[in-house]
Amino acid sequence: MRQNRMILPTLREVPKEAEVTSHKLMLRAGLVRQLVAGVYTYLPLGLRVLKKIENIVREEMNKSGAQELQMSVLQPAELWHETGRWDDYGPELVRLKDRHSRDFVLGPTHEEVITSLIKQEINSYKKLPINVYQIQTKFRDERRPRFGLMRGREFLMKDAYSFHTSYESLSETYDEMYKTYNAIFNRVGLKFRPVQANAGAIGGSGRNHEFMVLADVGEDTIAICDHCDYAANLEQAEAHGAEVAAAGAAPSTEAPAFEKIHTPNTKTIDQLVSTLGLEAQTFFKTLLYVVDDKPVAVVVRGDHEVNELKLKDLFDAKTLELADDATIERVTGAPTGFIGPVGLKNTALVVDKAVAGVQVGVAGANERDYHLQNVVPGRDFALERVADIRNVVEGDTCPSCKEGKIEFYRGIECGHIFELGTKYSVPINATFLDENQKAQTMIMGCYGIGVSRIMSAVLEQSHDDNGIVWPLSIAPFQVHLIPVNVKDETQVKVAEQLYTRLQQQGIEVLMDDRDERAGVKFKDSDLIGLPVRVTVGKMAGDGIVEFKVRQTGESKELTLEQAFEEIT
Ligand code: ATP
Ligand code: MG
Ligand code: MG
Ligand code: MG
User: Fold this and answer.
1) DSSP 3-state assignment of 343?
2) 140 lines ligand 1 (CB under 6 A)
3) Where in the cell is it found (predicted)?
């Protein structure tokens, strides 16, 4: 492509609205332009990068045996009512009405649509397992869209959904996706870590990993062991906490013995504790400082502002001292309606009865201003034992290998894989007939990648003071060809020849045929950051060009033939 005609508006000045390096670079190098907060136009250079990332994702997904399809962005509200997410998803869900006043959403994710499709089209165990994916625009009305493509309100995601007859089969596909994600993130040139994620966000009962790109601007804090592969996200459950209520395990058949208690005006734990007549000190000591040999179970899901702050303070407390053998558990399944929006919205607080003689188990009643007392973990909902990631402090001994030291890093979540279980197939009633012609509920997994977010993540990791340093695999062009003076006929002739020849070899070349000063061209070239620069200058008459590698800065003079060899 010829730069002279291209919409490639580079900027000298650092745009004021951009806070982080990747955002500054994508504006300065003319990759994108903002239309409105969190919504972007991809300019030609940026679009080429996006398509390359997309294709790497597509190739690796296809290699894994997944099938590509494409679902609509516009989705009828009925489907979202079926799963309960119309009410649970919150303000991130973009809702709209058609001319007949029927409700619709713009898909933030596609579990509802795919599950209802598979329910229609697949009826027999013979057709399972199946893994389908799409690369499609998503809409989320994020509270704080920011950092360019990092947190958009309209963004590109690869989302895959698998359907199974058994948990073993789900586990196999999950492993396959885990491998595929590693391959994808390696190919796009990122330094990343798969980490154990908090189960709260989407709900579901099984394994759950995030693929974190290590970068200081990342919004997540992850604990990584310097010795083994232990890595976990410290993020607390948020956003869709209420969904946990609808997830997983079946309600217990044993009659519940808990008591529903009116707890008005309990916006903080202190207030709750006092309304319930508990001794606050005991309560908190139990929660945080018990050093008895008794297990402690704490389950906290909060998105209430006041509450979140308090709980966060608790968990950030560096003085946290739990007995070595204290057990921290999380809810993995609860009967619908058991835990959910309550006085402490979306918060369930459970203290194991066995602890230090404190006879208390408190949970939200899924009803504003009510709580349940005397709930029994294990009876009233399932608890899964987890390594207590919140209990981990920088410099601690690794809870997994007990040898390494824990270090904290910041991470950008670029991918997320889940063993969903039956969270969506139950409400949508997606079943298949087994060998005995008996209807069974399908078991699901889901797997997301932030395709556009990857572009931001790469820029955070691959740049220097002069601009972008593209990894070859996703560079918008491989070669930047620069005739220094376009008024010099020899230079132009040599450059044109090289341009044609390289293109014939399938090399992607951007030729800076602009009538600009050399300094301007070189500055722009560094900023745009293509892997190889070939400068056609004063020596062009002798058939000599300069060959420079962006990443190392290493440069040499080569004959045209050598340069051609070097590139191809
Ligand atoms: P986050 O924690 O950053 O809000 P999420 O957990 O809500 O992300 P998922 O529902 O797991 O996101 O979606 C799958 C992937 O889509 C994420 O791992 C991320 O890479 C990408 N993604 C999610 N939200 C955005 C966004 N607002 N802009 C760009 N990419 C996003
Ligand atoms: Mg989110
Ligand atoms: Mg997340
Ligand atoms: Mg996620």
Assistant:
1) coil
2) yes
3) Cytoplasm
